[in-house]
Here is the input.
Amino acid sequence: MFGSYRLLMAVGVIVAHMGVSVYGIHTGIVAVVCFFMVSGYAMSGMIAHSFPRPTRDALAFYADRFLRLGPQYYAYTAICAFTVLVLGWRETTAQSGSPDVINIVANLTILPMTFWMYSKSIGTFLLNMPTWSLGLEACFYVVLPWLVWRRSAIWLAALAGAVTWTLSTQGVINPDYFAYRLLPGTLVFFLVGVAVQRRDWWLFGALAGFFVASAVCLALQHKIGLQFNVHLLVGAAVGCLTIPLLAQFRRRRFDDLLGSVSYGTYLAHWIFVTALKAHYGQTWAIATAVVGAIASGSITYGLIEAPTVRYRRALRLRNGEPDADAAPWRVARTRAVV
Here is the structure.
């Protein structure tokens, strides 16, 4: 069920970027938090079964992730370069700048985009604005093999994330950057998925309890409305309730198909958002953006990403178990989301 879940979350991002909220809740932020949790679940499962020596297999894991993210990302980045530079479809200050060496390298290498707040060059020239989150994902991929190596490392990471996230949501440090966009604060979301995958219910309970305690404290201090606090907490609640539930379902072919197109849907949607910016909030425009992004994601998955699957399987074959049929039941559940 993770495939349809991911596609639903992608639709939540599109709807939010088209100017719609649900009872004042930013569905895009809720969806991104859930994406982070799914990523933690899927990636820790992949490492356990396809790259079983995390530190020694780290480079192979990174190559697998590049082959997964890169092909469609570069295709949509090229399209966005055309829409931004030629057609002039720009939205927000994140697309108000001009290309230079720094932001071109950032857009091409993905990971630096999550640090846009520290560079005016990058922060004003994100060709596909929502892909800053891919930079954060890339940061998580870099550290994950070293976290799952030992259980103590996971708990230390959770502690570092909780401290940073608390300081951020309290307003001691930037409540946008450190609670939503950067490690280690966002580890509190990624590690929920890791805990479910590893069936570490002590860790899961500790993180879920942390979110409940944070919500209570922030409400009592009248800080629940600070920056994105309420949206992040709603996302944490949705993820903590749904990820363990969905992990109980076995994969289904149709669900796999929906999951396959979700990544391209996410990458494509900003093109439709900028094209329809004069019609934000209008039902027909929202429907057009959703349908157009899903259709685009389906096409680019088939034409661009699907041909790379055999190379990713070859990497996994050399290191562990590449196919669900050859792996324990937990791998079968994991592969639906990778």
